[in-house]
Specification:
Nucleoside Triphosphate Pyrophosphohydrolase, 2 domains, 4-stranded mixed sheet, 3-stranded antiparallel sheet, 10 strands
Length: 191
């Protein structure tokens, strides 16, 4: 059992009795595992994910860079911060964040701050998301966009406008929501 004097998630290992790859996908796999737990056994099916990064890019006018991307599972075009998969072998999360900012927003940043880490849906996936704040922005070299990135529009919106849209439930992308709320908390603590 973890020391509960400090509020902190803790790693816990249970003996895996059976593991089966149910689906091998292009980006994700679906796996079933049967494991020992609390004197018995449980079976869980979950998504194995390479992880992802997101970038809350804020310019000198306190505007947030947003991309507009179609997300088929929810049948909506969502406003998002630049983000992407940790799908390049050996690439560090910060380097992936820099790559995604350049690819999706055609920007580079002078200053980077690690904002927050989270599991997106720990009841059904091991996807871990790392969020950064990027400032000191300038144009990047032109990148050839992938087919998925071709129709992404880039817009700039005031931080407070984006925060209000998140809090009123008008924006739903979890990467955007978490990064905006983390930045708002940081600002509140700084006074």
């Amino acid at each position: 059992m973890a020391d509960e004097s400090e509020l902190c998630d803790s790693a816990e290992q249970h003996e895996i009795r059976e593991r089966h790859l149910d689906l091998q996908g292009h980006v994700i796999d679906v796996t079933s595992e049967r494991f020992d737990y609390d004197g018995g056994q449980l079976t869980r099916q979950f998504v194995e994910h390479p992880g992802a990064v997101g970038v809350l890019a804020i310019d000198d006018l306190d505007r947030v860079a947003l991309v507009h991307q179609y997300r088929h599972p929810v049948r909506e075009r969502l406003w998002e911060v630049p983000a992407g998969l940790l799908d390049v072998p050996g690439e560090l999360p910060l380097d992936a964040a820099k790559r995604e900012l350049a690819e999706e927003a055609e920007l580079v940043a002078e200053h980077w701050l690690h904002l927050i880490d989270m599991y997106t849906t720990p009841g059904g996936s091991n996807e871990r998301l790392r969020m950064y704040r990027a400032t000191g922005l300038s144009p990047a070299a032109h990148f050839e966009r992938t087919a998925e990135e071709q129709d992404m529009g880039l817009t700039w919106r005031a931080f407070d406008e984006v925060l209000d849209a998140v809090l009123s439930g008008r924006l739903h992308n979890p990467t955007l929501v978490v990064s905006i709320l983390a930045e708002a908390a940081n600002r509140s603590r700084r006074g």
